[in-house]
Amino acid sequence: MNRNALAVYCILVILVSAVYLPILYDKIFIDDVEKTHLFLSPVSQDFILMEKIVGKVPDAARGFAFDHHSNLAYMKADGTYVPRKAFERHLPFIYYKNMEIIGVLPITLNGQTFDKKTIKAQRRVLEIKARDLADRYPEVPFYPLLESNPGQARLVFPENRFRMTDSDMEFINADANIVDTGLTEMYTHALEKKGFVFPARSVNGKFTVLKPFDEGVFLVDHNFHVFHVKRVDDKPSIAKTPISTDLKIRAIKVSENKQKKYYGMALSGDGRIFLLGYNNYGLTPVPLADYDPDRMDLKLIFNPLYCTAIYSDDTIIRAVAMDKNFVPIKTFVHTMSRATMTGAGKARDLLFPFTLKLGTTSSCGYVTARAVPGTIWSLAGMGICVLLFTGGTKTATGQWPGRLRIITVAFTGLYGLIAMIIAGVSE
């Protein structure tokens, strides 16, 4: 094999190994552990969590594993482990169906009594994930504009979809695949009449019929004005909201709810979160310290007494419990067990000097290729590979390997060692 062919061959072996060997190793030795579930208990008025323990399971946690795997732990904020049933009793607003079965409901907390109907009516969850932001995942920019007054119990999808072009809100008949000029002119003219400036920056709505009713979509125009657009009796109903353009609204997570207090959550350009209210589109700030929308998933859990914000990246989970006026009353920060470095994790770092990853991430829905460097352990692994390569070559052939080959193994570790071994055999 000539030198050029050998070089290309080695590079391919190294690249393929850097992609697939770590994947194979992870499949065999690394647990894919989901994030910790963290809540505020209205009973103890403190945080309580559920998580899968990575590594050695403490005896205290194992002792309460009566009806589940021993590595699944239920734990209070002070580190005390509890049985699963005690965990559920701490969260009667979440496990209210189980509480009803065991006869705990109605339950009295903070001097107020709550039955199943009250709890169910006042529970709500709003969620915004980093990878769900408009510019973080591949999207086909055609949206349904549902009829908000369908004249029947269930919502139905219209036969057309709309998209925002540089100059129009363009409707396309999905059956015939042709532009509906009548609807396009009607909605575009109505938007311009309200002061909308094309092109739009974002389209925000909940595009499903599986919801109690429809609140249309929120469009952010080129100047960061926010417009509320609905289809009512097949006519445009458009409101220009008073939301300040200084906020540079980046996304609005809409979620229709029978309470009709908030349309959903709004994310400003500087990363702040607001609740978008029904009362003249008023914004209520949600105080979140160290929240980064590009890396973290956020969930707001409403119950009859509190609102709790839970937000996390891949390793740290944070929580802020707020009263009815969204004043923080308690905070909590926890390093999730999934971040624990295990023996398998250290061996992984020792084996692989770097990893080439293809695919999506927890914060981005696009398939990307990226190189992830190893840790200090990887340097030791690279050194071991050099010793194995030089010693093995000397033993097998009676000669030391060439300098370029040693350098290749020194910088690519196990991948280079595999490439050199295959090259040596082929020669």
Distance from first to last alpha carbon: 7 Å
Beta-strand content estimate: 25-35%
Number of strands: 23
Strand order of the largest sheet: 6-18-19-20-21
Largest sheet: 5 strands, antiparallel
User: Count of helical segments?
Assistant: 9
Overall 3D form: flat
Class of secondary structure makeup: alpha+beta
Low-pLDDT segments, ≥5 res: none
Helix content: 25-40%
**Radius of gyration based on Cα positions:** 28 Å
Tally of discrete structural domains: 3
Notable traits:
membrane, 23 strands, 9 helices, about 30% strand, alpha+beta, transmembrane helix, single chain, DUF4857 domain-containing protein, DUF4857, five-stranded antiparallel sheet, transmembrane
How would you summarize the topology of this molecule?
Blueprint: H1 3-29, E1 37-41, E2 46-52, H2 59-62, E3 72-76, H3 84-89, H4 96-101, E4 107-109, E5 112-114, H5 116-122, E6 124-128, E7 160-164, E8 169-173, E9 178-179, H6 181-193, E10 202-204, E11 217-220, E12 226-232, E13 235-240, E14 251-254, E15 262-267, E16 273-277, E17 283-286, E18 297-302, E19 307-312, E20 316-322, E21 328-335, H7 343-351, E22 354-361, E23 364-373, H8 376-397, H9 403-426
Antiparallel strand pairs: 1-2, 2-3, 4-5, 6-18, 7-8, 8-9, 10-11, 11-12, 12-13, 14-15, 15-16, 16-17, 18-19, 19-20, 20-21, 22-23
Helix pairs in contact: 1-9, 7-8, 8-9
